[in-house]
Structure formats: C-alpha cells, structure tokens
Amino acid sequence: MSMKFAELAKYLEKLEGTASRLEMTRILAELFKKTSADEARIVAYMTQGQLGPAYEAPNFAMADKMILKVLGETAEAKFKKLGDMGLVAEELGRGKNSNLVVKEIYDALWRIAKVEGTGSQEKKQELVRELLSRLDGVSAKYVVKMILGKLRTGFSDMTVLDALSWMVAGDKKLRPEIENMYNVRADLGEIAEEIVKHKKPRELEPEIGTPVLMARAERAKDAAEIWERNGKCAVEYKLDGLRIQAHIRKNKISLFSRGLENVTAMFPDVVEGLAKQIKKDCIMEGEVIALGKDGRFLPFQETTQRKRKYNISVMVGKIPLTIYLFDVLVVDKANWANKAYEERRKKLEEAVKPGSTVRLMPMRKVEKVAEIEGYFKKAIDDGCEGIIAKKLDGEYAAGARNFNWIKYKKSYDKSTLADTIDAVVMGYDVGQGKRAGFGIGDFLIGVYQSEADKYLTAAKIGTGLTDEEWRELLRKLKPQASSLKPQEYEVDKRMECDFWVKPKYVVEIKADEITKSPMHTSGLALRFPRFVGWREKKPEDATGVAELKRLYTLQMKGGDK
C-alpha cells in the first residue's frame, strides 16, 4: 500500500521537534521501513525540502507574498501573528482530511516548479491553491514550507545514511559501506532506493550524469614528508582555480563543482571546448582557471568572477577560461576510478585532443626528494599554489581524504600557518557602531566532525573584511538567518550568535596560528583569523576536526617555518 502524504507530514513534524541526532536517525529509519523502494527515493528528497538531488532540484521561485495571495484574505493577519507561512497554512487547513499519497504530492509539486513563462506566477498560484484545498492542516504546512524553501528538519545527508543503516541493521554499523555507495553516486534518493530495495549495501560504480564526491588530498609540511610517504610518485601543479567534474556525453555535457552544484550554464566556453576536444563518453576532473595574455595563471579572484548566473556571455569575452584536466573516472561506461593513477593518466592523455581550452595538468614523475622540491619551485614560479603528489599505484578515493594524494603548498610568512582553513559559516552577530549599518559585526565559523555529524566552533571573525565583503556576507547569510540554532551545531554559550544559518556556506580563512581553546567546541581556535574568500565545497567537505588537529600538530613540529 502506498504511503499517504499525511503520514510523511507527521514524521516531518516529529523531526522538526527533535534535537537529538540519534532520535532523528531512529525516526528516519522507522520512516524508511514503511516505504517502498520507489517511495524511499522521493522521501529522501522531500525530507530535505527538495524534489531531487541539490544539483538538479528545481527552484519553485515563489515567495511569501505569492503564498499569501493563495491562502486568501485572512492569511495576512494570521501571518503577522504567527510569523511562519507554514503555520498559517496549517491553521487554515485544520479539520480537513487528505488521502493523497506521497507520489501524488511529489508529482503535483514538480508541476508547480516547472511552470515558467508569461503568466507563470498566476498559474503557479492556481496550482498551489488547488493542491492545498485537498490537504489537511499538517500536510499543507509542510507543502508550503517545501515550496518556500523553508523546511528545516535539521539533519544532513550523513544522518540519512545512518538511518538507512539503522533501518537494515538496527545500528550504524553499515554506514561506512552505505557512504561508499553515496561517494560514488552522490544522489541521496538513489541510495535510499537501493538500500530499501536490496536491504543491504552493495557496490556501485560511477555513472555519467551523477556526480562522484571528489577525492581530497592530505597535507605535507615539506618535500621530505612526501618522499617518506610515497617514494617515487607523480607530482602535478596545484592551481588556484575552480575544481570541476565534467560529465561528457555525445548530446550533453554537465559540469559540477566540489559542492555538487551544477555550474554548466556558467561556463559555456569550457563546455564548448570539452565538446570539441573530447569525443568519448566519460567523467573527467580538472581545474578551471583564467589565464593572462602572457599565458600565466591569474589569481583566484579573477577566475571566480566567472561564477555567475547573469551576464555570462559578456564575461566569457572578458575572462576566457581554460580547464586543466588531471583525472578520468569513467570512459565509455567502463569504471577507471579503481585503476592505478598511472593507468588513469595514460587514458586521460589518450582521450584529450590537442586544443586551447582543454589542456592536461602539468605533471612530472619524480624519483628523489630533490626532484619534488625542484618541481615545487617551478610550480610556484609559474604562479601555482604548490603541487599535488600522487601515488603511482593509487586508486581514485571518491569522497575520501588520504595520502594517495598529498598537497604541498607554498608557505606564507613565518608568522602564519602554512595553509588556510576551509570553515563552515554557522552564524553571525549584528554590528555595533559603523557595523550597525551593515547589520553584521562578526561571524562564527566551525569545522566538521564526521563521526558525530556535527559542526564544532573554531573562531569568531570580526576583522579583516572590506566594507563590500561584509555586505556580500550579509547578502548571502540573511535569507538563511534564524533565531534557532541548528541541531547539528555544538556551541559553547560564550560563542552564541544573534542569528544562525544552516550549514551551507564554506569560507577560506587564514590565521597566524592554531591554539588550544576551552571556549571553542573543537578544542582549538584560530589566532587572528582573516577572511580570504568563498569556497566551492559541500559543508561536509570543509576542514574536519581531525584535519585541524593535524595542522596544529604540524605547527608544533615546526612544519610552518
């Protein structure tokens, strides 16, 4: 029997009212036990307020004012009193019964989201009005929250993976195997469907069109550490650009960022170059970067100007991009991710035709420490951040950070850390004095603890940003702002914020050093932290607690001298 949407809505209500991560996991496990495999896919999306994975979920493009028109004359007064459009819809829908099943609601929401063109707002409102007229109060509340993008159940993809393990085994022991499936195919709905259908994890292979979580590199303090760990290896340039995963098919090319955002429309010149220079169906990875007229790599700030949704054609002419490919994961339906680096590099070289837009990442095989140091100096002279050293027999470790890949970046001056931190923005405080005009005076950042699926604090930053950077920060954060702290945040009372934001934005932070701290829940704090820029990463891919501790250890050993 198909699940009624009213039952799913009751589960969403339970989840919203739960602060315990373990209890959330149990509630979700109980929910998935009641779904069919097809329903599990839909439920995985809808419990996060989406109609698909983030990289292809539609935007409803509806605001509070449009929903007020749908709900009728009495809605505005109720909204002023309740402050939540979902609660208004719930109150107006009380007393009704609904027999609509989950799939019917899902299909109806897709129809609403797909309406566009002349008269689209009126058509959307008509469809929403018709749908809400058939729903009970609780169901109406959550449909409205989904449409407005305000469903806050307070858990991440990782909690869903825990729940799928709990559903099958009664605990989290299957999480690593299920996470391996998700790393290879980052579609939470597909993974939920697989587990509900087969009642156990199974091995999946990369599939063109579904992003693979990108492999990550460990850090090294110098060339000697690279040699000690990897011996003879390959070293590649580490560019300061935008990492892109390209999914190439004869009739379609899709580009995904590290944060699993579909950025295809932003880089038409890269898409055109890939179509001309690669004639095989494949998944490849590379770094997109702007080049100067002299052919040198331009700073990240130049490249990132191209990451925009408007005036794209104008910017293509002003700042053309080049993609430097460094890995291949799939070729003509064959999985290459589990093959050795040397084999993958050879396949990559065979697949890319010569041209200007698509190039191979500069690489050299090295057989002694001096060669690593020499190539590092060459990379720095050529305008790179440093180098990535790769084991010749190493596989591509989707979603993982290990010593198959080791990054070695140029040091800053002696008073600073030899690397930056990628941190998640957790919340912010309103400003004082001049900052009162900005509406923001400082912001709290944290690092991810994967074992507990929590974010732990590491610094509050109130200096080092230009006026425009403060304004941009507020523009991004304000639409997400809430007085309620997300359940996945662990924050000492001394670090509480005026406003909280859900884990979404990742920033690059530079600091003088890392110190031990009783005020920060990571146990470590960044001394004199400064904002460097925005990072294209999923929050879970930001610097982790273990990685922060490793940086602290490297610092203590003199790795930053």
Annotate the secondary structure layout:
Blueprint: H1 5-16, H2 21-33, H3 37-46, H4 64-71, H5 75-82, H6 85-93, H7 102-114, H8 120-132, H9 137-148, H10 157-169, H11 175-184, H12 188-198, E1 216-219, H13 223-230, E2 233-238, E3 242-249, E4 252-257, H14 268-277, E5 282-290, H15 300-304, H16 312-318, E6 321-331, E7 334-335, H17 341-351, E8 358-360, E9 363-366, H18 369-381, E10 386-391, E11 401-409, E12 421-429, E13 442-449, E14 454-461, H19 467-477, E15 489-490, E16 499-500, E17 506-510, E18 513-516, E19 524-527, E20 530-535, H20 545-556
Describe this structure in words.
With 561 residues, this protein is of the alpha+beta class. Among the domains are: 216-409, D-amino Acid Aminotransferase, Chain A, domain 1 (2-Layer Sandwich); 421-556, OB fold (Dihydrolipoamide Acetyltransferase, E2P), CATH 2.40.50. The protein is built from 20 helices and 20 strands. The protein has helices spanning 5-16, 21-33, 37-46, 64-71, 75-82, 85-93, 102-114, 120-132, 137-148, 157-169, 175-184, 188-198, 223-230, 268-277, 300-304, 312-318, 341-351, 369-381, 467-477, 545-556; strands at 216-219, 233-238, 242-249, 252-257, 282-290, 321-331, 334-335, 358-360, 363-366, 386-391, 401-409, 421-429, 442-449, 454-461, 489-490, 499-500, 506-510, 513-516, 524-527, 530-535. The strands form four sheets. Strands 12, 13, 14, 15, 16, 17 and 20 form a seven-stranded mixed beta sheet that branches. Strands 3, 4, 5, 6, 7 and 8 form a six-stranded mixed beta sheet that branches. Strands 1-11-10-2-9 form a five-stranded mixed beta sheet, covered by helices on one side. A hairpin with a 2-residue loop joins strand 3 and strand 4. Helix 13 (223-230) packs across helix 18. The termini are far apart.
